[in-house]
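Hi everyone, sorry if this is the wrong subforum. Our group has a chain we'd like a structural model of before ordering constructs, and none of us has done structure prediction before. Sequence below.
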Amino acid sequence: MTIHTLRGFRDLLPPESDIFVRIETAAREVFALYGYREIRIPTIESKELFVKSTGDTTDIVEKEMYAFTDQGNREVAVRPEGTPGVVRAYIEHNLSQTGRNGKYFYIGGMFRAERPQAGRYREFTQIGAEHFGNPSPFADAETIAMLVKLLEKTGVTGLSVEINSLGCAECRKTYRETLLNHLRLNVSTLCEPCKNRIERNPLRALDCKIDGPALAEKAPRLALCAPCAQHFDRTRALLESSGVGFKVNPGLVRGLDYYTRTVFEVKTSALGSQDAVAAGGRYDDLVKSMGGPQTPAIGWGLGLDRVALLLKDTMTETGPGTFLVSASKEAQNAAFKLLGELRAAGISADFSDFELSLKSQMRSADKSGASLALIIGEDELKTGAVAVKPLKNPGGQRSVPLSDVISEIKKSAF
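Answer:
Right subforum, don't worry. Here is the predicted structure as tokens:
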């Protein structure tokens, strides 16, 4: 019986895996420029962590989270997102007391039991950034600008940024009642999940995939208090001065359970209707609500699978720089020795099986994607040379002294 991957899960194979490495490398380079340090959080956490932080009325908790009881009778969950785990670590390890900027990034797998679609899987890789301790609009603008820079560095084009402000708890206190009254008057038009949760959390209806778009058009608007309005105005001005293009989208809510003030999405039309590739926002009350000190914070998450889908046309098969071929039994040791010398010199090198015929080894060299085949046989052993055959560029095979072959390869003389 053949065992296959589960629906919504996949093997990530070359050359697509090479794109993931490219994106991750670009991310690490950008994070270093902005002073972010890496944090690695567990894949499995207490289920309560995600319920408490994300909200018990969110789709993630109600429908998508992989949760189970383990052998120790503990309620645990495989992480559906990164922010709750980073916040837990921030509190647990007293990271607010280090005296350093609280800037952290993570790269890792997340898990959600949602319907698979283009660029979206039940196991997906996410890059996230979290900035703790800075309440100013400068942190908002820097965070968004960094995200745009990262995406541009990976090669993604046609980006657009949408922003909005959700205000603070005081702004939303009055708005909650106004929105609830509107939803009650229009309850017959709502989907079943929204009907069931509007009394507990009416704000969730604005983020509903079914009802959200219509409510964005008809529902009353949130009125920002003076400090929140000033914060949003300043954030927009800073983005403009940074050269980051954006538009304000009053319907952008990003799931209102822990977000406050600035929220944002980065989109591209290349993915059709599912066009958001990264999103985030400010969450000034989350650390305190989870038992930590009052700590302003802002962050975002980026789906690598979706970004990789945008870059699929840039996928190319890569191979080693050189491929060693032994044309005789007597040459095998010399070929193997050269293999190690090439790698020690920083030149990628590979081989197949020196016991195979010359024809079979050359066939393997052609399939490897290598640029050069380095052939050592009886004649080469006698003369202390290597036969160098270009595999990609036109050019004949030529003999190079063994002592010179590494320097010649480094000079790209072939």
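For your construct planning: The chain has 15 helices and 16 strands. The longest strand covers residues 102-111.
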